[in-house]
Structures are given as C-alpha cells and as structure tokens.
Amino acid sequence: MRELELPALTHSALSDRLIALRDEHQRLKGQGLRLDLTRGKPSPEQLTLSQPLLGMPGADGHTAQDGTDCRNYGGLQGLPELRATFSGPLQVPAEQLVAFGNSSLELMYECLVDAVLFGVPGSSAPWPREGRTAVLCPVPGYDRHFAICEKLGLDMIPVPMTETGPDMDEVERLVADEWVKAIWCVPKYSNPTAVTFSAETVRRLAAMETAAPDFRVFWDNAYAVHGVADADEPLLDILGLSTEHGHPDRVFVFGSTSKITAAGSGVAFFGSSPANVSWLLGHFAKRTIGPDKVNQLRHARFLPDAPAVAAHMERHAALLRPKFELIDTVLEKRLGGTGVASWTRPRGGYFVSLDVLDGCAARVVELAGEAGIALTPAGATFPHGKDPRDRNIRLAPSYPDLDELRDALEGLVLCVELAAVERLLAASDGTG
Ligand code: PMP
What we know:
Blueprint lengths: L10 H20 L4 E2 L7 H5 L31 H11 L6 E3 L4 H15 L15 E6 L3 H10 L2 E8 L2 E2 L1 H7 L5 E6 L13 H9 L8 E5 L17 H7 L6 E6 L11 E4 L2 H14 L5 H10 L3 H30 L5 E3 L8 E5 L4 H10 L2 E2 L17 E4 L6 H26 L5
Parallel strand pairs: 1-12, 3-4, 3-6, 6-7, 7-8
Antiparallel strand pairs: 2-9, 4-5, 8-9, 10-11, 11-13
Bound molecules: 4'-deoxy-4'-aminopyridoxal-5'-phosphate.
GO molecular function: L-aspartate:2-oxoglutarate aminotransferase activity
Protein name: Aminotransferase
Pfam families: Asp_aminotransf
C-alpha cells in the first residue's frame, strides 16, 4: 500500500514518477510481448473438456429418443431431449424452448431483424413504422448487442449498470415512452461487470408497465451456468414472473453451449411464450427446413441432463478460477490504494471490468498496444464505442495460460499507472 494516493501527489512528485514509469514502459516495449486480453474465448484446456463430443454420436448413433432419424430434414424446434437438459438451466419449460443453430447471437440478430421487418406478437406494425425505435442498453455492456442495434439503425439509450442490475428507476422512467421497445440484459455474471440481477430487479423488469405494448426484454443468459465461485448466484425466473404479472410475451430468453462445449460448434437456444415461439418458428420455417440435429444429438448424449451440465461446468470453473484470482492479485498489488483504478471480482462469467482514472482508458489501451498487449478497445462496452468518461476496459482472462496472463497483467497495471500520472500532471498547475 502506498502512503499517498496518486491524485494527492505534488506536481514534482508526479514528475519524478512519470520519468520512472516511462523508463519502465520503455523496458516493457523492449520485451517484444505478443499477448491478447481482448475476447472471451475458452482456452484450449477448456475445449478439451468436451473432447468426447468429437467422437459422437458415432457411426450408428443417429436416432433420437423419440425415434427421429437425425440425419434427415425436419424438427424445427430442436431435439426434445436437448431442450429438456437446458430447460432447468435456462428457466424455460422444455416445450417453450427452441434449440437451433450454433450461435445465440444469431438468434438475437434474427429476433431484432424480424421485429424490424414484421413486428412481434402484440405489434400493430413493424417496429420502425410505429415511429422512432429505441433500445435500452445497460452500460457497460456487451459490444455485439450494441453492434446489432447500430447495424439496424435502432437508437440506443444507455442506462447505468448498478451492483444489482440496470438502474431500474431509470428503466421504468424510460419505458414510459412508447418508442422504447426493448432492453438488452445479460442477467447472470454479466458481460462485462459480472453482476447477477437481484430478485428485485428481475421482479421490476417482469412487472413494470411499458408504454409500448410490444416491448421485449432480450434476456441473454449467456452465462447461466458459468459460476467460478463455490456458491452459484441465484437468478429469478423472469419468464414465469412476467407471465404472473400479465406480460407473458415480454421476454425473449437466449443461451447457448458456446462456453460449455465448443465455441462456434455448440447449440443455441431461444425460450419464450408459446406465441413468441410460434412467431420465431414461423420465420425460421422460411429460411431452413430444420437445424443440425446431429450436432444436437451429440450434445444431448454428452450432456444428458442438468446435473451433467453442472458437473461439466465445475471443470470449467476449476480452470478459470485461478485466472480470475491472478487478475485480482496483480491489480491489487500495484493499483490497490492508488486511487486511480477499481475493478470487479467476478463470481462467474468471463470478464473483469476495470475502471481507470476518467479520461485514461483509451491511453491505457494505446500504451499497452505499444508494448504488444492487446486490450479490448476503450469504449467498446458502450453504444457506438463511446464511453463518456473514457474509463472502462474489459479484461478477458480465459484464453491465455497463467504465465502469459501474468505478463499481460503486469504490463497492463504499469500502463494504467502511467496513463494516470500523465493525466494528473497535465491537470496539475505545476505549483505543488
Ligand atoms: N452473449 C454474450 C453476453 C456473450 O458474452 C457472448 C459471447 N461472448 C455471446 C452472447 C455469444 O454467444 P454465442 O456464441 O451463442 O453466439
């Protein structure tokens, strides 16, 4: 622990510090590092946990439990046994769950495109034809959600994330406008803040009155079973609660096995009310004669029930836990008590959200890049890539091994301190 926080140092102390830090950064650049903390990809060790999938379903294994020949066309809603496995983890009755392609992001894109082209159950017209269309975006949030909105020309309204989920006072205020049609939510071990929505947040989302009768909650439960701590963080069943509160069609649930089995070769899920499920399947029916049931069958055999999923995820957690611990250790050692950084200590998910001194995030990313450490671009966690305070950086520790991760983090903390000292010096009047 330092004697003084960096912002309390005098001008001359900061100048001395800057010289030392620039020296250190110069040496870091000389190391020729090539490290990457950008995207939340599973590591090779994590992928190997699902190696048996590659030999499944096997030469004779093409028949599903109900006798379906998975080699043939059909079965638009996906294999019942796989839907049964994920019904519990995703909190959607199996008959209201669709198992589709290899990407939940694709399903989110499809739902938004269909809403824009045709409207959803309860719409009187396609969304844009009813006037301006806006989507609430809790921030910091998932850049790919924002990219879909940007692509489709939908307005994005940032809503601050709190420790319990999106600021619900703000959400309730905003949904009183009928052009606000949807909200993005990553309700469990959120990307990037690792927040799990509290019971009160979920209840309020389910119960709130919205001016738009066709308002939708895009419930992207990408990290439903991805705890890394000893105890799982519970999440209320929003689909059931919305139905109880008279809004059965409010929620679109999404999930996938991307970070359970093989990222890019997994299975994605959509869950919702019967009316929404028929709506989506109606659109699917025009673009495909059925999903890849052979992939679904091997997933159903590899993960025959929810306890099998939980046991498998415990093995993932064992690989991820030391990486999250290492982040906290390295950040705390150098940045603890400096007053120029705060970060999350995730109990699940894939990310650590780091807040540096206001106005410094882009500079930290630049300094790290000069030293061969790739970080997610500053601002990526905000709509249009613009963080109004230029302070948030998303760290993704899953892919590198522990040695690479330590090297990357030690470089990163230096860059955080250097950017802060540069900024503080620029702001100080030189009289200290
Ligand atoms: N949602 C969130 C919140 C994610 O973090 C990710 C992966 N980074 C996805 C969706 C993408 O999932 P999929 O592979 O199923 O498209």
